Amino acid sequence: MQSEWITQESGHVSLHGEWTLRYYRDIKGTLRQLGSISSSNRLTLSGFKRLDTAGATLIVELIGVKKAKQVSEWAADLPKEQLALLVRIAEAMEEPLDVAPASPHRVTDALATVGQQVAALWEQQRQLLGFVGLVLATLFSLLFRPHRWRITATVAHVQQSGLNAVPIVALLTFMVGAVVAFLGATVLKDFGATIYTIDLVAFSFLREFGVLLAAILLAGRTASAFTAQLGAMKSNEEIDALQAQGLDPIELLVLPRVMAMLISLPLLAFVGMLSGLVGGAMVATLSLDISITQFIATLQKDVSVTHFLVGLSKAPVFAFVIAVIGCLEGFKVSGSAQSVGAHTTSSVVQSIFMVILIDALAALFFMEMGW
Amino acid sequence: MVTTTHSQSEQHDQPVIQVQGLVNSFGPVVVHEALDLTLKRGEILGVVGGSGTGKSVLLRSIVGLKRPNGGTIDVLGSRLNELNEQQRSQVERRFGVLFQRGALFSSLNLQENVALPLIEHAKLPREDAEYLARIKLSLVGLPAKAALQFPESLSGGMVKRAALARALALDPDILFLDEPTAGLDPIGAAAFDQLLVTLRDALGFSVFLVTHDLDTLYAACDRVAVLSQKRVLVTDTLENVAKTDDAWVQEYFNGPRGRAAKHSVASTISKE
Ligand SMILES: Nc1ncnc2c1ncn2[C@@H]1O[C@H](COP(=O)(O)OP(=O)(O)O)[C@@H](O)[C@H]1O
Ligand SMILES: [Mg+2]
């Protein structure tokens, strides 16, 4: 047998040519055809044009680690570097190289995954409760010590997460208000009761949509920002540095964010309610022939202030949940870039889920109370 | 030389890197001015200099991460700023770079980190690439079970070793190391120096080694280049460099730490 890399004739095998990464696959294929060479064969290594680690690996595989380590005894005419390389590679391959990943077993693996997920979910909720407790404890301990309030940081966060979100919240609720009005008009026209469109828009926005839409927007916009900020600090060991200096990251980093959300979300909810009503009013005037004065008069007559208070009472709860989830997920970030992504996603999903869950429970509660 | 790809223009005794009249600046801040530097084939060149003298910038402009503001850089017989995109990538493929903080890909495990260039550049199938990657990891002295670990779970020394394995993935002709032993304990650092020399002898690459570590200079470097006053003040063997009449050099080599390093090397040599 004769090829570019290996010649075999009458029990004499000789390796030559260019044994490099570039030809790794070709050489491997040639060697596979050849099968193993028996130890009775005489072997010469001569005149490799070039040899690199990949080529050396193939040679060591072919002749065995033991023989390769003694290469200088039986192939002394190879250049010094090639001998050294073969010996180094043989030494490296002496260690067990194969790390078998755990053997795949479909059914039990699936069961194990389910178990892990459930345990992880439970652990997540436990951590969240613990963190809520921690934040509340810190909050109350600082409540009566105003000199330790972080006014500047809080105001900066109010600007970022509250003020800067006003346009998008206003626009979104305006459009949803218009849609609800159209919907109401279409359904109520058959009963000749289009005037009740006003009540529909007012009830839905004061009680639910104003605060819910604002909360969902902030969950996407601010919870993710909090997670990414704290996550980057965590992976840069900044949070450890704070702790090592005896500073409390909850007090310095979490509380200003929670406070900022507690201030921003009620205000944004109010903006949302107003602009939803404006959206409804616009549709009412433009396509239902209801004048603005009539709209306002009906509002005053039909809609009690309770609805507004019921809606607004949910805002601080949502704000707290969103801020706390955003910060907690940030603290959970570990070194890798992937982990930042995973926790940011998780913080948005969790906070939207919690907002809607709490909203549903609150709706039940308020209905039973007759508020 | 075992691992070199010989192109036509490349002679054997030609320096692998020749920098002439290099100018680098960031806005008004001039970092290098008329800087000359030579890296000979097969040598380990230690590049030293105070913090902020532009060692990292020099490394980055040679490997093509920063475009120099003037001067020429010849690497492996071709002039870098005259090459087109594709030729450049051909040359850059023959570099191995170990960044100051390791820069391992955090979402890949070690074996995948090393296998990535083998899959992307050498077009090996994943299985072969990961097998070769495990050999590389073993070559730099990491245990087999580390192959499936992720960078975040590694100690500083292991990160440096893994980053070295990745730099060696494609059997580079030139290895660039930016402070590889910074942040390692002295024993780990000494082992790294030893590893570097062994691998250089076996694989025959040339090394551009930025370091602050005097022990590394004594243990591993064939020549030392001193960066000072925006240029390379002197490039020579350690002995001759230490004799240079320059305040920083004298302070560096003959200050308390310099003497300690020299002393420890002298005593290990006399023991042998
Ligand atoms: N991207 C950059 N923008 C502006 N200045 C820079 C940049 N990178 C480096 N410098 C400046 O160049 C000088 C040299 O930096 P560097 O090469 O990192 O020093 P060192 O020798 O410690 O590695 C420093 O003064 C630094 O401020
Ligand atoms: Mg540097």
Automatic annotation (TrEMBL), chain A:
The chain crosses the membrane at residues 128-145, 165-188, 200-220, 258-284, 305-328, 348-367. It comes from Vreelandella alkaliphila. This is ABC transporter permease. It comes from the Bacteria. One of its GO terms (molecular function) is phospholipid transporter activity. It is a multi-pass membrane protein. GO terms for cellular component: ATP-binding cassette (ABC) transporter complex. Belongs to the MlaE permease family. Its main location: membrane. InterPro entries: ABC_MlaE_roteobac (IPR003453), Permease_MalE (IPR030802). It is found in: Cell inner membrane. Pfam families: MlaE. Keywords: Cell inner membrane, Cell membrane, Membrane, Transmembrane, Transmembrane helix.
TrEMBL record, chain B:
Keywords: ATP-binding, Nucleotide-binding, Transport. It comes from the Bacteria. PROSITE patterns: ABC_TRANSPORTER_2. This is ATP-binding cassette domain-containing protein. InterPro entries: AAA+_ATPase, ABC_transporter-like_ATP-bd, P-loop_NTPase. It holds the Pfam family ABC_tran. It comes from Vreelandella alkaliphila. Residues 17-254 form the ABC transporter domain. SMART domains: AAA (SM00382). GO terms for molecular function: ATP binding; ATP hydrolysis activity. The keyword Secreted does not apply.
